[in-house]
Structures are given as C-alpha cells and as structure tokens.
Amino acid sequence: MVEWVVIVYDKPGSDRSACRPQHLAGIPPLVEAGKIVHAGAIYKDVVDGKPANFAGSHLTIVADSKDEVVELLKNDVFAKNDIWDVDNALIYPFGCAVRKEKQ
C-alpha cells in the first residue's frame, strides 16, 4: 500500500454546504478502514484570522494505485453531486518524513 497526497478543488460556483454533513459522516469509516490518514478543507482566504471560502479538499489516502484513489474520490458525495473536480485532482505518491498528531 502507498500513501497518496491529494488536492481536489471544488468546481467553480459549486456549493458544498448542502452535502457537507453527509460528506463528513463518510470520512470516519474510511479512517477506521485505513483508507484515509487525514482529510480537511482547503480555503481561498483568511478573514479575521480564520480560513474562509472553500477552495477544495486535501487528503492523504492509502491505496495500491492512483486509479484506486480516483475511485475513492468518485464515490464521495462531493463528487457525486458535482462539487469536486475529480478529473483535475492533484494526486501524487507520498513519502511521509514526519507526522504529528493534531492538537
């Protein structure tokens, strides 16, 4: 198995808010299954010291191949509802040098 770093942008004009609860509910089972190491939103701006305006998502996914990563992305509610631009996702094999638990 290989870790893959993924950046998948939201499509222009898309609104993830309606699908976000379902998307977030789907992450823990993938973490428990060892498929997702970490995941979170990326943003366009910082406003008043806080991230603002969704740009997309960043994930580290464990899979045997890039095709398997793409399939995992396509099965997410964000892809199924035309929010994520999976066809243009940045997907690279990743060699982690250091990992610190979120505080």
Automatic annotation (TrEMBL):
Domain of life of the source: Eukaryota
Alphabetized InterPro entries for the sequence: Dimeric_a/b-barrel, Sec-metab_biosynth-assoc, YCII
Coiled-coil regions listed: none
YCII-related domain residues: 3-84
Pfam families per record: YCII (PF03795)
Species assigned in the record: Kluyveromyces lactis (strain ATCC 8585 / CBS 2359 / DSM 70799 / NBRC 1267 / NRRL Y-1140 / WM37) (Yeast)
Name of the protein in its database record: KLLA0E02267p
SUPFAM superfamilies per the UniProt record, alphabetical: Dimeric alpha+beta barrel
